[in-house]
Amino acid sequence: MTVAVAWGGLPARFRRLPVVGRLVLAVALTMSLVLAGAAGLVYWRVETALDGQLDEDLATYQQSLNHAVRDGGALPSGPDGSLHQVLDAHGRVLRSSDTVRDQRLLTPAEGAAVAQGATIRRDVGSLLPITPGTLRLRAWRVTAGGQTRVVVAAVQRGHRDEALRELLAQLALASGLTLLAASYVGYRAARAALRPVERYRRGAAALAADAEDARGLRLEVPTDRDDEITRLGHTLNRMLGRLEASAAREHQFIADASHELRTPLTLMRAELDVALHRPRTAEELTGTLRSVDTEVRRLVTLANALLDLEQLGSGEHIERTPIDLGRLLDDASAPYRAAAEREERTLTLDHDRATVHVDPRWLEPAIGTLLDNALRHGSGAILLRAESRDGRLRLSVADEGTGFPPDFLPHAFDRFSRAEASRTTPGTGLGLALVAAVAASHDGTAHAENTPSGTTVMIDIACASPEPAA
């Protein structure tokens, strides 16, 4: 249970480390595994080669002892430091090297097993910790003159063990230095890779701390490269731009609402104060209520226009659908035909036969606003023209009136901007601003101009089929 808890808490502690620390730790752990594997492979190959040489020397010595024991001759000397011992079937030492004399190299159990035909091979002493007199011995049975003999041959392992211990020390040193170097390189690489991220963080923090003074500022992103970090910087700049635009819309909305709503509310308050100041006749109260009703209607119209502009500014309420261009214009112009007939004016449609991808919920009111302006402020015939070319839809409403005042044209699509001649007529001053917002939400523009024959207001928007989502 304790081990499970310890291992279960490790990821949480790992996640609390800084990103650079996690990267360095991951590099260190990975390099440790790689180095351990490589060191293990090298050690195994060297150990195998040394053991092979040692076993080969022991096998050669064994063959010499076999011939000497069978022939009854003198036992030969083997490699430097080698030992031999000959025992009878009962484990008594018959002959041995001077260095061991009567000291038995085999246990009684091992001697009995060899006498029965088994072969014993084992090492005496250990590599680590260091022990003196390390051997590798082999014991086997030999029949000489009808007698069973147990022959033991042993060679020294000192040179082999010393070489392996030196190899372990060298591998540990090399692995340690390599691990330190890899960790340092990983640390420097991680710091270098994350330095732009930290710079972006500081820049974003500065922008957030002083939003007013930082308006229009962006993070510094290199232009001579295109990698993950620079793409992150561009994404953050786009996000900052959208946040700034959203804040600007919010400020504009609040400013417009506070400015334009104050006048009708003040008028309503004045009307009510006068009505409540002294007793009024039913006719006077009715007049007051009608005046208040007019201001309420104006407030509702103004609030709806402001909300429409806010929705269009956010760009999140546009849903393009395919619609026949002729049907779109018929639906948009239908409410204004009767008004044109009452004024004995003509309303003509001229359009291509095409299917366009737009949002009719917004485009129809925009066209209606242009027609309404032409009816109220213009004169003569009205021409609603539309043509679709190269994925763009160009709409225009032209009349034969006197046109816009020259100084008003640059501000025609500003909010609450009204020409002097139209200030005496009902309106909020948001009609053309709404038209411009609808055009912008469809990736287009709105434009007004005076012509020799009157006034023309144009909308140029994208109307191609939207690309399918990936």
TrEMBL record:
<dbReference type="InterPro" id="IPR036890">
    <property type="entry name" value="HATPase_C_sf"/>
</dbReference>
<dbReference type="GO" id="GO:0005886">
    <property type="term" value="C:plasma membrane"/>
</dbReference>
<feature type="domain" description="Histidine kinase">
    <location>
        <begin position="256"/>
        <end position="465"/>
    </location>
</feature>
<keyword id="KW-0472">Membrane</keyword>
<keyword id="KW-0902">Two-component regulatory system</keyword>
<keyword id="KW-1133">Transmembrane helix</keyword>
<dbReference type="InterPro" id="IPR003660">
    <property type="entry name" value="HAMP_dom"/>
</dbReference>
<keyword id="KW-0597">Phosphoprotein</keyword>
<dbReference type="Pfam" id="PF00512">
    <property type="entry name" value="HisKA"/>
</dbReference>
<feature type="transmembrane region" description="Helical">
    <location>
        <begin position="20"/>
        <end position="44"/>
    </location>
</feature>
<dbReference type="Pfam" id="PF02518">
    <property type="entry name" value="HATPase_c"/>
</dbReference>
<keyword id="KW-0808">Transferase</keyword>
<dbReference type="InterPro" id="IPR003661">
    <property type="entry name" value="HisK_dim/P_dom"/>
</dbReference>
<keyword id="KW-0418">Kinase</keyword>
<dbReference type="GO" id="GO:0000155">
    <property type="term" value="F:phosphorelay sensor kinase activity"/>
</dbReference>
<dbReference type="Pfam" id="PF00672">
    <property type="entry name" value="HAMP"/>
</dbReference>
<dbReference type="InterPro" id="IPR004358">
    <property type="entry name" value="Sig_transdc_His_kin-like_C"/>
</dbReference>
<dbReference type="InterPro" id="IPR050428">
    <property type="entry name" value="TCS_sensor_his_kinase"/>
</dbReference>
<feature type="domain" description="HAMP">
    <location>
        <begin position="191"/>
        <end position="248"/>
    </location>
</feature>
<keyword id="KW-0812">Transmembrane</keyword>
<dbReference type="InterPro" id="IPR003594">
    <property type="entry name" value="HATPase_dom"/>
</dbReference>
<dbReference type="InterPro" id="IPR036097">
    <property type="entry name" value="HisK_dim/P_sf"/>
</dbReference>
<protein>
    <recommendedName>
        <fullName>histidine kinase</fullName>
        <ecNumber>2.7.13.3</ecNumber>
    </recommendedName>
</protein>
<dbReference type="InterPro" id="IPR005467">
    <property type="entry name" value="His_kinase_dom"/>
</dbReference>
